[in-house]
């Protein structure tokens, strides 16, 4: 079915820029992609034969031709080619394109690392430019508020990434491991000679790894368990975060201290604290139980203790300082005597390994105690990480007293930073549950008594609170004290947390430390947030916590459900307004506020560059503290490589510091006042148009018909169910992840832009909109993010998905709004094509889009067969092809959910 695009403004001509983009690709990246592509072709030929490679090439050439000549018939011919494939060949072609994307993504990621390394190699630490590095941010802040005030703010800055297991990472762990090995070999090629045995060996190993990638089944046979998800993320800690965070502290400290770096006490206080929802988030996930929460905390602690033990051993290896020239202080001798009293056998062995090396032997004994803590040997174990830190400080002070300052503030300081950052728990395990679950549990207890025959879910709720106490007793209060309440809609929802805790422990005096954190998710909840918070201050448990914690309050804002509720533009404006009002409430009540941003990876869930988002926040809403969720595939994209992880952390912390600079606060405040009438007009028009679509009769069923929503639910990519209910009769029970993921798979990305075009057209004042883009950071961020989202859409592919439904009216609404939004974004940014001003990102999208189109056509073939029911293939075979294509499209468009 053909749909007519109807817009009120003339559209810019679509311009073919693939040829230009291809030439703009940096030579090292182009060479890496070429080598990987050629090796993949060789593997396909060896594995399946020339026929597969011929079919892949034919489809690739037609897809490219369709982009180069959009008015031609190449796309239709590509569709015919796909229709003629046997199902076995269609699967092979889908897997081939998916492998290509994995390899291309690997090459692009490594090129980012290459660029970062080159930038670091040529950077002059004494000459800062206006970039987004942390030293530059400190320098800029100092020019505005003075050196002393800038240092004070730096000492108090907080960055809290919270790792979550939302199922947007469609790759198997086996596939991810294979990709990581390929990435290491790509990096190795950079340091090898241009020929000879070394490069030949690399070629051989690279071909073997690509062959393994091709032969590894891309689909999991079963869903990962919650503890599988915990172990996956712990792998990221082991490979990058354990080392990256101390390295970021060191880099900043070296700059601040200049020539004194490494010889004087550090001025950088550890500003990062990790959090995790994996094993604690039970909202809608029946697989997260009290037992799982305890196990998750134990796994994280084992990883932290193992890393600290290894780090202590490595540090001790460098402290071979002879006691004659570097004598132990009396304090260190006392520490050694205490250690000997714990185990004479270990002390004798350590002393024999470190003859007349008092600092080394003390630290080796510390490593033994860490091993004992991990194995739960009560005679040797540390009780808390504070005890460990005290012992390390004794060693450090002794080195300083002996004049060995470089050893005192070298690797030993790195170990201290690790202890201060990770403790014995690694990441605070945050718990989350839906407010309705608490209400049902309280009603059950009221009817039957706490010792009555309670419903299993009520028993689980009480066991969860008992688990908090168990975890805190083992690892300290910071290991698990935050309890997030989903859909907080009244102060009683916060009171329920404390009431249930008291019921679980038989009274308030035995309850562990708990901070109930409200989560405001829907548009209505965001609007009501301040009133709820105001009344929450009257709760005695809240007043008690404020007295204990220095009047610190955390409030979480949900990006996903608010966007699904009123559309991406209205949700962004509502979130901005809520932050402004909550920040004012905090100032009025002398509260130290931390806003917790529940941002997803995709633009429809609050995704996009985090540092730019921070700088666009309302004045006073950040105040040196930034906390956000890092979800699914985003964890690996941001923290999978140490260089990229360090860059991301620096950028976000730099933005967190700068957001409180007078110039930034003044700009944001003035822009908010200046463009408030515009914001109101945009909100009304956007929300109305969004609701006209999603509240149309039959929309949920139509949505499930024109996207692979139901089939995505079959993917074993996460332990959490895709929806709270059993059907798609209502969007209320559909989680935001499949909502965004499904539109992304259909090449529509509706969740990231729908409603914006109509809103901009309703203003019909290009000069005013361009002024807003130049002067209002929030609006600029919205437009730039939507531009990125639109770059991954395709009207022709989208129209084919929309034709799977029987609602021409809804399909036409979507296509018209897509074109309308693209027109206004280009007009506001004064561009001739999407992403033309962002050359690096633009050329990457342009070059990979035809390959995504090829996978989309394969997916459409499967989806048509499943929807019509008259395909000759079996349903399960069509589902397999569709799921294979889902993996490929996810790899091709990236940040999908």
From TrEMBL:
Give GO cellular component annotations, separated by semicolons: cytosol
- Look up keyword Lyase and say if it applies: yes
Cofactor(s), names only, from the UniProt record? Mg(2+)
Q: Name one GO molecular function term.
A: phosphoenolpyruvate carboxylase activity
Which of UniProt's keywords are assigned here? Carbon dioxide fixation, Lyase, Magnesium, Pyruvate
One GO BP annotation here? oxaloacetate metabolic process
Q: Which reaction does it catalyse?
A: oxaloacetate + phosphate = phosphoenolpyruvate + hydrogencarbonate
* Residue numbers annotated as active site: 166, 564
Please name the top-level EC class of this enzyme.
Answer: lyase
Query: TM spans, by residue?
Result: none
A Pfam family in this protein?
A: PEPcase
Q: Which domain of life is it from?
A: Bacteria
Q: Which SUPFAM superfamilies match?
A: Phosphoenolpyruvate/pyruvate domain
What EC number(s) does this enzyme carry? 4.1.1.31
Biological role: Forms oxaloacetate, a four-carbon dicarboxylic acid source for the tricarboxylic acid cycle.
Q: Which family does it belong to?
A: Belongs to the PEPCase type 1 family.
Subunit info here reads: Homotetramer.
For this entry, the protein name equals Phosphoenolpyruvate carboxylase
Q: Which organism is it from?
A: Cellulomonas uda
């Amino acid at each position: 079915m053909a749909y007519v695009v109807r817009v009120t403004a003339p559209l810019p001509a679509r311009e073919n820029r693939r040829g230009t983009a291809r030439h703009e690709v940096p030579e090292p990246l182009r060479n890496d992609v070429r080598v990987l592509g050629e090796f993949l072709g060789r593997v396909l030929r060896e594995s399946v034969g020339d026929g597969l490679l011929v079919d892949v090439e034919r489809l690739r050439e037609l897809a490219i031709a369709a982009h180069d000549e959009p008015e031609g018939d190449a796309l239709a011919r590509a569709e015919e080619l796909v229709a003629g494939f046997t199902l076995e060949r269609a699967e092979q072609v889908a897997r081939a394109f998916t492998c290509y994307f994995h390899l291309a993504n690997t090459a692009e990621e490594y090129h980012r690392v290459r660029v970062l390394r080159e930038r670091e190699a040529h950077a002059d630490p004494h000459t800062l430019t206006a970039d987004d590095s942390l030293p530059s941010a400190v320098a800029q802040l100092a020019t505005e508020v003075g050196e002393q005030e800038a240092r004070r703010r730096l000492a108090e800055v907080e960055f809290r990434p919270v790792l979550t297991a939302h199922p947007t990472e469609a790759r198997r762990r086996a596939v991810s491991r294979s990709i990581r090995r390929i990435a290491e070999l790509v990096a190795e090629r950079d340091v090898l000679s241009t020929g000879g045995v070394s490069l030949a060996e690399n070629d051989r190993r690279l071909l073997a790894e690509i062959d393994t990638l091709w032969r590894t089944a891309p689909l999991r046979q079963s869903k990962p368990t919650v503890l599988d998800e915990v172990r996956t993320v712990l792998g990221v800690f082991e490979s990058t975060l354990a080392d990256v965070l101390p390295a970021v502290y060191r880099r900043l400290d070296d700059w601040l201290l200049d020539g004194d770096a490494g010889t004087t006490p550090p001025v950088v206080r550890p500003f990062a604290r990790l959090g995790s929802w994996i094993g604690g988030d039970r909202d809608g996930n029946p697989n997260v139980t009290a037992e799982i929460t305890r196990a998750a905390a134990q796994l994280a602690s084992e990883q932290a203790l193992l890393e600290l033990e290894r780090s202590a051993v490595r540090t001790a290896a460098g402290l071979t300082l002879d006691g004659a020239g570097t004598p132990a202080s009396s304090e260190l001798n006392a520490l050694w005597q205490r250690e000997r009293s714990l185990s004479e056998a270990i002390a004798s062995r350590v002393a024999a390994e470190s003859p007349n090396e008092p600092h080394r032997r003390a630290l080796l004994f510390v490593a033994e105690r860490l091993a004992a803590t991990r194995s739960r040997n009560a005679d040797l174990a540390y009780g808390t990480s504070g005890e460990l830190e005290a012992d390390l400080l004794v060693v450090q002070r002794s080195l300083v007293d002996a004049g060995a300052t470089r050893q005192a503030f070298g690797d030993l300081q790195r170990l201290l930073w690790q202890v201060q950052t990770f403790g014995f728990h690694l990441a605070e395990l945050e718990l989350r549950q839906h407010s309705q679950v608490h209400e049902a549990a309280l009603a059950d207890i009221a009817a039957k008594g706490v010792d009555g025959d309670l419903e299993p879910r009520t028993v689980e709720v009480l066991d969860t609170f008992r688990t908090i106490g168990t975890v805190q007793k083992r690892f300290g209060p910071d290991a698990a004290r935050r309890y997030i309440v989903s859909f907080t809609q009244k102060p009683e929802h916060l009171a329920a947390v404390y009431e249930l805790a008291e019921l679980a422990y038989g009274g308030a005096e035995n309850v562990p430390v708990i901070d109930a954190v409200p989560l405001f998710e829907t548009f209505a909840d965001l609007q009501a947030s301040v009133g709820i918070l105001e009344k929450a201050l009257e709760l005695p448990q809240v007043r008690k916590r404020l007295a204990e914690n220095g009047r610190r309050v955390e409030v979480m804002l949900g990006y996903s459900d608010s966007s699904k509720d009123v559309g991406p533009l209205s949700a962004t404006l509502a979130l901005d307004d809520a932050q402004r009002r909550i920040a004012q409430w905090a100032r009025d009540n002398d509260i130290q506020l931390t806003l917790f941003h529940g941002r997803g990876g995709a633009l429809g869930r609050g995704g996009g560059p985090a540092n730019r988002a921070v700088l666009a926040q309302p004045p006073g809403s950040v105040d040196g503290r930034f906390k956000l969720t890092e979800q699914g595939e985003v964890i690996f994209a941001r923290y999978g490589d140490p260089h990229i992880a360090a860059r991301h952390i620096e950028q976000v912390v730099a933005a967190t510091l700068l957001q409180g600079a007078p110039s930034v606060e003044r700009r944001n405040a003035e822009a908010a006042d200046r463009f408030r009438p515009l914001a109101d007009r945009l909100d009304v028009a956007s929300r109305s148009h969004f609701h006209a679509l999603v509240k149309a009769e039959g929309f949920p069923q139509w949505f499930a018909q024109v996207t692979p929503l139901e089939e995505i639910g079959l993917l074993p990519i996460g332990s959490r169910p895709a929806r709270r209910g059993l059907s798609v009769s209502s969007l209320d029970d559909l989680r935001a992840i499949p909502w965004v993921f499904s539109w992304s798979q259909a090449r529509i990305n509706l969740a990231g832009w729908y409603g914006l075009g109509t809103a901009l057209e309703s203003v019909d004042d290009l000069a005013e909109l361009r002024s807003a883009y130049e002067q209002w950071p929030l609006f600029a961020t919205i437009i730039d993010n939507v531009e990125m989202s639109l770059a991954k859409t395709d009207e022709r592919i989208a129209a084919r998905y929309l034709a799977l439904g029987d609602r021409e009216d809804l399909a036409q609404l979507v296509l018209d709004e897509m074109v309308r939004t693209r027109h206004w974004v280009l007009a506001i940014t004064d561009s001739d094509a999407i992403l033309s001003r962002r050359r690096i990102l633009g050329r990457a999208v342009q070059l990979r889009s035809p390959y995504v189109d090829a996978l989309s056509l394969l997916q459409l073939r499967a989806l048509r067969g499943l929807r019509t029911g008259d395909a000759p293939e079996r349903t399960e075979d069509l589902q397999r092809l569709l799921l294979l294509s889902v993996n490929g499209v996810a790899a091709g468009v990236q940040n999908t959910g």
